[in-house]
Amino acid sequence: MEEWRPELQGSQQEFEILTDHKNLEYFTTTKALNQRQVRWSEFLSHYNFRIVYRPGSKAIRPDALSRKREDRPNFATGDDERLKNRERIVLPADKFDIGLYNELKSWYSLSTNRPCSTRRR
Question: With CB atoms counted within 10 Å of each terminal CB, which end of the chain scores lower, N or C?
């Protein structure tokens, strides 16, 4: 959810979190929480979601935590086919300023060492 935070946080549209852990269905309605659950509850409070239980035997795809490292998408190069559908248009075309975009693009570059680095003029 942290990775998709810009798209999900504050959204009016509810989204589903699928899990094979039955007890998580009741997480949002539990009244007595331990400290770790309180932290998770606070983090999740910024999202409009519903937890849905799906038995592991009915899961179509394995979750990211159960994948081997070599089976995960390669985010560094950006040429992984699985990532091509990740791009979204967040700003409507009529509000997009191509001049400003090009100016900002000339100041910033993506680096494999750091998420974003600036180029000084």
Answer: C
How does pLDDT run across 17-52, given as a tens digit for each residue? 888 888 888 888 888 889 998 998 898 888 998 998
Q: Print burial letters for 76-114: b (CB count within 10 Å at least 16), e (below 16).
A: eeeeeeeeeeeeeeeeeeeeeeeeeeeeeeeeeeeeeee
Sign of dihedral through CA atoms 36, 59, 63, 86? negative
pLDDT, one tens digit per residue, over 72-87 is 656 556 566 655 655 5
14 neighbors 49 (Cβ within 8 angstroms): yes
Eight-state DSSP code of residue 60: S
Return d(Cα 112, Cα 114) in angstroms, integer. Answer: 6
Full 3-state SS string of 72-116: CCCCCCCCCHHHHHHCCCCCCHHHCCHHHHHHHHHHEECCCCCCC
pTM of the predicted structure, to 2 decimals:
0.45
CA 28 to CA 45: how far, in whole Å?
9
Contacts of 100 (CB under 8 A, 6+ apart): none
